[in-house]
Amino acid sequence: MFGDLERTPRTLLVCDRSSFLDEKNRLSSQVEQLHFNYKVSMLLPECSSAPSRLEAVLNSFNSFYLIRKLPIHELLDKHFLETSVHQGLVSGLSYRTRIDEDNCVALMPNGHLSLSLDKDSFELLGVEGKPSRYNLGTNSRYVVSVDLTDSSMAPGGRGYQRLVTGLRSRIQLKTDFLLSHHPVGGGASLQALLSRCDWSEHRPEVRSYALTDLCCPLLTSDLQSRDPHLLLEWLGAVDADVSCENSSNSFLSTLVCPEPKTTMSRALSVSVCGLLSPQDVHRLIQQIRCYLDQPRLESWASLTVHGFVDSPVSWGGDEHGVLRGGENFYSLLMFHDHTYHLHLGTGAHDTCPP
Fold first, then answer.
1. Could you tell me the pTM of the whole model?
2. Cα(301)–Cα(338) distance, rounded to whole angstroms?
3. Which of 78, 107, 300, 340 is the least crowded, having the fewest Cβ atoms under 10 Å away?
C-alpha cells in the first residue's frame, strides 16, 4: 500500500503544434470543449503592466451566480428549460462538492445534465445510468446523463416526470450551485429561477503582479527538443510564485528552470478566477494575439486554463474523476509568427483530450 502512495500518479498529456493561420487548426473547438474553467493564468514576458485593451478584456469576463442549497429539480422547471436550457444560454456546476465522495451535478451549455451519484442516491433516483469508470473494485458510484433538449424529456412526459420525482421526492438533492449565463439574453431568463432561491452575483477576480529578474527557458516556436512536462512545471512554479533557482539555502523547492535559459528583466503574471466561460477565454486568446503582433523584446506569451478539479465532466461531456490528481487543464504557448504549442492534460483514467 505504501509503495502505491509513493508512486507519482500517471497523467495524460496531449501536445499539439499548429498555426492560427492554418484553417484546419482545432484550437477553437478544443477551447470550447472544456466547459467548466475556474482559473486562467497568463504570463507576458518583458511587460510590467497589462496593455489597456488586454485589461479591458480581463475586466469584461462574464459574471456568474452562486445559488445556495439549490434543489436540483429546479433545473427542470418548465420555464427555465424553455427560456434558458433549450436556448443554450446557461451552464452550471455544483460547488464545494467532491467528485469522489459527494453527489455532483453539471449542466452543460448543450442542455445535457450530468449527475455523479453515490450508490444509494442512484438507486433511489430510479433513472437509468451506468457505473462510474472510477469505481475501485466495487460499483460505489454511478453516472446519469440526460439530454434535457430531447423530446423524451419534454415537460409532462414520462421520462421527465420520473427524473423530477426522483430529484424532488426520492433523493431531495440540494447543493450549492454556480450558474453562468450567456452575456446576450441569458441574465434575464434566469430571474424567475433566482427569485425562488438564495443567490448572489459575482464577477471573476483578476489579480496581477510584476516579476523582476525572472529565470526563464529560451522559448522559440520550435520546441521539439524540450520536455513539455518541465516547461509546464516551470509555468506552474511562476504562477504559484515558487522560485526555480534551487539555491542551497532553500527548503521550499528543488525546482529548476529548464535549460537553456535566460533571465528576463521583467514579466507580468495575471490570473482570473471564477466560473469562466470558454467564450471569454477565446476572446482573451485573440487579444493576446493582437498583443504579440506589436514589436517588442519578447516574441511569446503563455496562457494556462484550469478546469474544476471536482467537475463531473472534463473534455466535451466525458466523465471526469479525481483519484489522486484531478488534472483537468490546457496550456497554450503563443508566438509572434502566429504559431502555437498546446498542451492538454488530464488524469490517467479520463478520456484522452481532443
1. 0.91
2. 11
3. 78
